[in-house]
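Morning!

As promised:
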Amino acid sequence: MNKFTVSGSPHIHGDESTKKIMYGVVIAMVPTMLFSIYFFGVDAIRVFLIAIVASLFFEWVIQKYLIKGALTINDGSALVTAILLALNLPSNLPSWIIIIGALVAIGMAKMSFGGLGKNVFNPALVARVFLLVSFPVQMTSWPKPTPITDGLADVITGATPLGILKEGLGAGKTVSELTPELPTYTQGLMGEMGGSMGEVSALALILGGIYMLWKKIITWHIPVSMLLTVAIFSGIFWGVDPEHYADPVFHMLTGGMLLGAIFMATDMVTSPMTKGGQLVFGFGVGMLTILIRMWGAYPEGVSFAILLMNSTVPLINKGFKPSRFGKI
Amino acid sequence: MDNIIIIAISALGGLGLVAAIILYFIANKFKVFEDPKIDLVEDALPSANCGGCGFPGCRAYAEATVKSAKENGNLEGLNCPVGGNDVAQQVGSILGLEVEAKEPLIAVIRCNGSSTNSPGKVNYEGATSCAFAHALYSGEGGCQYGCLGLGDCVDACDFDAIHMNPETGLPVVNDKCTACGACVIACPRDIIELRKRGPKEKRIFVSCINKEKGAPAKKNCAVACIGCGKCDKVCNFDAITITSFLAYIDFSKCTLCRKCVEVCPTNAIHEINFKPRKPRPEKPKIEAPASDKSVARKPAVDSPSIPEKPAEKKVIGQEAKPTEKVVEEKTVDNKDNKE
Amino acid sequence: MGILRTFALGGIHPAENKLSSNAPIETIAVPKQAIVPLGQNLGAPSKPIVKKGDMVKVGQLLAEASGFISTPIHSPVSGKVFKIDNAIDGSGYKRPAIIINVEGDDWDESIDTSTNIVSEITLDSKEIIEKIKNAGVVGMGGATFPTYVKLMPPPGKVAEFLIINGVECEPYLTADHRLMLEKGQEIIIGTRILMKALNVNKAFIGIENNKPDAINHMRELVKSQNDIEIQTLKVQYPQGGEKQLIKASVNREVPSGKLPIEVGCVVQNVGTAFAVYEAVQKNKPLIERVVTVTGKAVKKPSNLLARIGTPIGELIEFAEGLPDNTGKMIGGGPMMGKAITSLEVPIVKGSSGILLMKKDESSRRTESPCIRCSKCTYVCPMGLEPYLLSAASKLSNFEMAENESIMDCIECGSCQYGCPAGIPLLDYLRLGKLKVGQILRNRK
């Protein structure tokens, strides 16, 4: 006899799934991955592979032997964390440091909080900041991007545009004196500037962002409010004193700004649940980034800004509730 | 250089002294008087904070007892089921009151609708919550009074005393039960009842709360109580009442004579921890499948882990006729109760 | 043509699957045995006034109302009362019912069984309400609230608009659609009767945009009448929810915890309007209704006019049999309907449809952890946060659930529909509502 199933309604469901969302993010990162391989060559492939294999391995080991729970390495979340971690690293980072990064990202920042959906801080960023503070030399000898078509030359290291700016301003130079050393806008857009693998090509990142918006994986609120805040704040200072403050477009194209705005700050698990809350979150990230860039000790502030705002998300969720229907 | 050290020590020391004096006076001024007996009573309590007494935590119960002793001169209506008679005596002696011993109780599952007795007719998918499933539908076996097997009682227990048996889908209570009543409240169908533990843990109860007539009841479950009344007729102590086609044994009147267990046609009445009966000539009866935590009169089906016991171990006075069924019955009893 | 109205918050767009929208209403034969449950409305079950062995006619009173929120029940068939006993209902619980062995099809003499349409409304408001009450009319959209109670606003509240719900936002269901196409005139007269009963002079009939033929037909019928307006509504679930419909129709939000009359609106289903017409103009009590039998594997998706008390097995037979691979039977639509346990369950006043789902469609997805994507919050039409309420209920934190307005939930299922992680949000929401409801009742 055919046994009927009894369950509560609804009895149909949409076709969205966690796997689809995660692999959607991976597809959105493909242009950036391709650009980074183009500019950084075999090294980039090495970093990607090690990050991915190490992350998946650590998640598998922890789930199978430590937690002794269900294995979920197939759902794509570890893969996303791995690729995001790789995009935050310089392509000449030694392999053993990458593996430590994967362990921190998966083990410390994700699994020890309870696994998928329970972490407070963005795992890839936790790992990047951990590595930056623990291995400052290796994490800041940025290779110069050499298109793969120019042949496989030896890697030359140089500073990032933000590094040049900070050091130069600190030494007393003005912005116009530094401009020859800084990349042009086109170079920034296409990716010919020093930095981590994901920081280089703005165009690739924007393409990924458009894909995710189309697939409804992210909403526009966080990237737009973050970039708008950066533009306005830096614009005010640049307008007042263009010789000591860089212009807004420079800020948007350099460093991890676009990578952070499109991929890191929009991470669903660690960002607010309501659209109002997301706007506030984006504003906070933008403000903190510019503050650190202008007056902080580090040349780049996106990672710290996002992590700091991650810690305020539970509070933002409490304060920003959706408008209730029929609220008296 | 030395001056600095002396100055530092005397400055901080003086500051500390001033602070201590201020705190001392403030502590005395704002002191709340608490009867020291409350602390003594609280220490005597089991500190489980389970709520079985009806108060929010052991401290609140301690306060209530001291208050009751002062105002009423007795401890009427106040009982800590987890502590039992020992703790009651201790509390009584602290407060200087006579406390009468109470019968220890235990939680009893009044349903035997296992997956064999009440096979599933539909498949349930959804939240693992008895409260939800109860509101949704009657149950996989079809009996709307039967256990849903989703474990709200297991979640409610603070004492690790109740666990779900995965083979039967029914909960099993073990000796750790303190009769705090949490599982009774948690069960949406009122299947669990607190009953007397009985002398040497012997008890008899009707393992069914189905109020339907015989035919529809048996359609869903092979060991349902059909309200036939045979048990009532045979009981000499007026302990059994039949209401709405369901028998109920009053444990304050029951003398554990077991006559009702023998006559029940569906094996709905269970006896726990009894010695095996005198072997009797078998009467042709309906073969009822084995129930899990109690004894069926018929030979237990599938008891692979039960060792054979030598016949000499039986009670003095009984004929040493080692029939397989009797030996298995005895070991099933003990094993089940140790769970 | 009119603008496309809709409600502002949330909403989803499940596949419509209106497989039976072109199937005209067919009348199914009376069953051999009718099982008439005594509890067919929201509120107290009715009290039987017949006993075993009595002979009854179609339309004869079987049970009277027991209390204010209760309705009488009339016999849907003619024959002999076999017994008054417990019979299984959709959820598997046994409830009291009157079981009648059917003999012939004799109707009570007072009922006008002719097919001509009676347009003139001769009774006044009080008489209309009394007649609707005595005919046992309840909300036919599925809620089964006694209609006459809705027509008597409590003191201090005045009805301003009547809104007729022709939305039918649930996928698969087409009973209301066919009713509007085939009995449009009767529905309009029923609307007028309700307007008179409520003393309002403006009514709206809301129809979703996926039924253009019904919209055009109804518009034609009210061409010259200014006080009844047909409104085209955007296709969005749950457009047919009472509060969402009022928001879309007259742009008023029913306050949390209150009824539509608070904003001067009364909402009735088109099926109810039709039943009101039959009750007032034809003296016919509520004894039959249109039920959609549908499903991807059903050979003949149909809309059947069936007597109350007909076992659903017979309706499925009429639709050419239970498909072999049926995994689930649903009474109602796929978003809010209830899974049925047996084929003997009878049609009752609130049965809008029978949906048969194939085995591969019947299982739920495996649950995985919440990734806080917020999709549930985006689609909730009441502006709630299902992820939070569901987690609070699961952890028995009912105080938080109450503070986060869990009692506002209309149980539409949009949250669970869209959840990528397959979490049974509505299960826990319902559990939370149950417990919080108990707490609130104990508080009084």
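Chain B touches chain C at residues 121-122, 125-127, 129, 131-132, 135-139, 142, 144, 212, 216 (CB under 8 Å).

Hope this helps with the figure draft.
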